[in-house]
Structure formats: structure tokens, C-alpha cells
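Whiteboard transcription, Tuesday session. T.W. wrote the C-alpha cells on the left side:
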């Protein structure tokens, strides 16, 4: 399908966000790292066209549903810019799972072998709940697909916001690693920047000696550490934003929607969302507490073994952390994108119900549809299908 930039969100604005838990920006990777040997030797996609795509976890709009045989609420969208240097010219786009999507994918590849490999990558992307770079990296590693680290770099926007958080978080370890060096403050600032890059170089040698790690175990350990720092930062950023979203939903809920069934649905849904968000956050905090304890053993107790062991085992925890944080990140980012001024007054009731149901689906909240035809009373678990019929 061919679409303009306006129809899929302004591409330049989408491009400027870099890669996030909802967007994998391969155009930005091409601009930044195309000259690096690893970029071409270990590409994300074998197809050059796909390898400059922008991948989005996208909420399906009403006018897009007829592209599918089923009725998905979200899908993985592949956007191919007409010109990578002139994103305002628009793009062609396709959804994974829409009718004929594999034929469209084949058209973007240079032959059957390339298609088979890239289809597998697309299907793995589609199976993930988010496009968080750390979750992606571990997912492809598990499935033995070798992709260069440059494709999983944290975006520049995120990097700037993270640096202050990371600097404070690792300050104690930097002091330990550079205890006998002059200008440790300058070394600390350099170390923060290195940790947020995709490369590990000799400037991290004091850290390697502190952690007593060698070779692959050292590289994997540092990457795992960055992952946990990234998740800790994301949670600290997300929680205030999520609180604002729930508060705004509560305000809409208190005003009501006019239709009794819709008001009942929204009343229950807001409560379920608040509970599910709290559960997701608690699960993430529990996992991060394991890191905190191991880090405290190292920086306060001087015991390197617990932290070293933790870093070696940490990748197995990435998937759960990525799923939980990706789900709540979607709620915060989508709501604020849809209502940038924090005001949802005047939103059509059906659109609001669709948004809330999408949020529930992203959090794995199960619902039971009442049998209205049999006289069963509507309850707070009213499904979207029944809500649509009441509006019609």
C-alpha cells in the first residue's frame, strides 16, 4: 500500500524520535552507521530497502481494519521511505499480517533466499510486544540471528535524558574503579558516554578489572548492565507520565459518556488499568531489586562475585522486563501523542473505548463479554464489540 507522510504521522517527526520501545528507526541507523563495516556485514535486514525502513508497533485505525481477515487492535507496520534523505516525500507501508503481506515483502527483497531470511526477522519482530532495543537484541540472539550492535543503539534523544540518571547510578562504582586515578570526575563523565554507546574499548579497562570479567563474558556483562540501567531509567521516566494518564482517564470517567453501558465499561476499565499498571511496575521493581542488591554488594561491601554473577545471568530477565515496560510505555506515549495538551474533552465515545481496550490488551487484562441477548446485565468487563453496538 502507498501512503503519504501525513497519513502515517509526519515522517520527519517520527524519524527524529530515533528508536524507542514503539519505533525501530533503521533510517537513522543507516545515516549514523552505514560506513561502519559491521553495518553491512551483519545487517538487520538483508534487503537494502528493508534495512532503511521504519518499523512501528501501530494501533490499527478504523479505516485500516479491512486490510485484515481478523480484527487486530495493533500490528507491526513497516514503512519504506520513498527517499531516505527526503522523508517529507512520503513512503509506502504495509502491516505484518494484512492480506498479501508476504507478497509485498517479497517485492522488497532481491530473491528467495533474502526473502526467507528477512521474513523470519519480520515474524520475530511481530511476535514481540515492543521494539525496545535491549529486548530486540536478546530476542534475535536467542533465535541465532546475528545482527550488528549498531542496530540496537539507544536513540540520541534517550541518550541525552539518560546520562544524568546513569551518572548518578554508577557514581559509586566509578569511584571504586578509579579510586587511585587523578581526574576521576572527567573519567566518570567519559565512562557514562561509553556505557551508552554500542562499543566497548580500552577506556573501560579499569571497570573490567573491577568486575573481574574476561572476553565475551565481559562484553555481555556490560551490555546487560546497560540494559538494567536503561530499564531503571525508563521506569523512573514512565511512572509520573502514567500517573497523569490515569488521572486524566479518571476525569473522563467522572464526567461519564452519556451511554450507560459505555460509562460502566469505562468505570471498570480505568480501575483495571490502574491495577494492571501497578502490577507491571511491581514485577519490574522486583527484578530490578536483584540488580540493586548485587550492585550494593559490590560498591558497599566490596564483593565483586555477586555482581559479576548477576551480569552473566541478567540477559534471561530482559524479555520479561521489556514486555512489562514496553506495555506501560505504550500507554504513556500513545495517550500523550493523541492528547498532547492533556485534555481529552470532546473525544468521541467510541474512540475512547477503543483506546482504553487497546491499553487493556497491551497489559494482558482479560475481559468477559456479557450475553446481552440472554438478558445478562452489563458489567465493568463490557467488551468493545458490545460498546460499538450500543453507539450504533
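and on the right, the sequence the group agreed on:
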Amino acid at each position: 500500500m502507498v501512503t503519504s507522510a501525513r497519513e502515517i504521522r509526519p515522517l520527519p517527526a517520527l524519524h527524529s524520535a530515533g528508536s524507542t520501545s514503539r519505533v525501530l528507526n533503521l533510517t537513522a541507523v543507516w545515516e549514523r552507521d552505514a560506513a561502519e563495516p559491521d553495518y553491512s556485514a551483519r545487517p538487520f535486514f538483508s534487503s537494502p530497502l528493508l534495512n532503511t525502513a521504519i518499523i512501528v508497533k501501530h494501533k490499527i485505525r478504523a479505516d485500516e481494519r479491512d486490510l485484515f481477515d481478523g480484527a487486530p487492535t495493533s500490528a507491526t507496520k513497516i514503512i519504506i521511505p520513498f527517499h531516505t534523505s527526503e522523508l517529507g516525500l512520503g513512503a509506502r507501508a504495509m502491516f505484518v499480517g494484512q492480506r498479501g503481506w508476504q507478497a509485498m515483502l517479497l517485492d522488497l527483497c532481491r530473491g528467495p533466499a533474502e526473502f526467507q531470511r528477512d521474513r523470519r526477522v519480520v515474524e520475530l519482530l511481530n511476535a514481540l510486544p515492543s521494539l525496545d532495543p535491549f529486548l530486540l537484541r536478546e530476542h534475535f540472539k536467542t533465535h541465532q540471528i546475528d545482527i550488528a550492535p549498531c542496530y540496537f543503539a539507544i536513540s540520541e534523544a534517550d541518550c541525552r535524558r539518560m546520562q544524568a540518571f546513569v551518572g548518578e547510578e554508577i557514581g559509586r562504582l566509578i569511584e571504586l574503579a578509579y579510586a587511585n586515578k587523578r581526574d576521576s570526575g572527567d573519567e566518570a563523565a567519559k565512562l557514562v558516554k561509553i556505557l551508552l554507546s554500542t562499543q566497548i574499548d580500552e577506556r573501560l579497562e579499569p571497570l573490567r578489572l573491577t568486575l573481574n570479567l574476561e572476553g565475551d563474558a565481559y562484553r555481555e556483562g556490560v551490555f546487560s548492565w546497560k540494559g538494567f540501567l536503561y530499564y531503571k531509567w525508563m521506569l523512573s521516566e514512565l511512572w509520573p507520565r502514567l500517573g497523569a494518564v490515569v488521572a486524566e482517564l479518571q476525569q473522563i470517567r467522572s464526567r461519564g459518556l452519556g451511554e450507560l453501558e459505555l460509562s460502566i465499561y469505562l468505570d471498570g476499565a480505568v480501575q483495571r488499568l490502574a491495577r494492571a499498571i501497578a502490577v507491571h511496575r511491581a514485577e519490574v521493581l522486583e527484578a530490578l531489586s536483584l540488580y540493586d542488591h548485587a550492585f550494593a554488594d559490590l560498591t558497599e561491601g566490596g564483593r565483586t562475585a555477586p555482581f559479576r554473577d548477576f551480569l552473566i545471568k541478567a540477559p534471561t530477565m530482559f524479555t520479561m522486563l521489556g514486555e512489562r515496560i514496553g506495555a506501560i510505555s505504550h500507554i504513556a506515549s500513545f495517550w500523550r501523542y493523541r492528547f498532547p495538551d492533556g485534555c481529552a474533552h470532546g473525544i468521541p465515545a467510541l474512540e475512547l473505548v477503543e483506546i482504553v481496550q487497546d491499553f487493556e490488551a497491551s497489559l494482558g487484562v482479560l475481559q468477559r463479554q456479557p450475553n446481552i441477548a440472554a438478558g445478562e446485565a452489563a458489567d465493568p468487563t463490557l467488551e468493545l464489540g458490545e460498546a460499538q453496538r450500543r453507539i450504533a
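Someone added at the bottom: The chain has three domains: 2-152, 156-211, 215-391.
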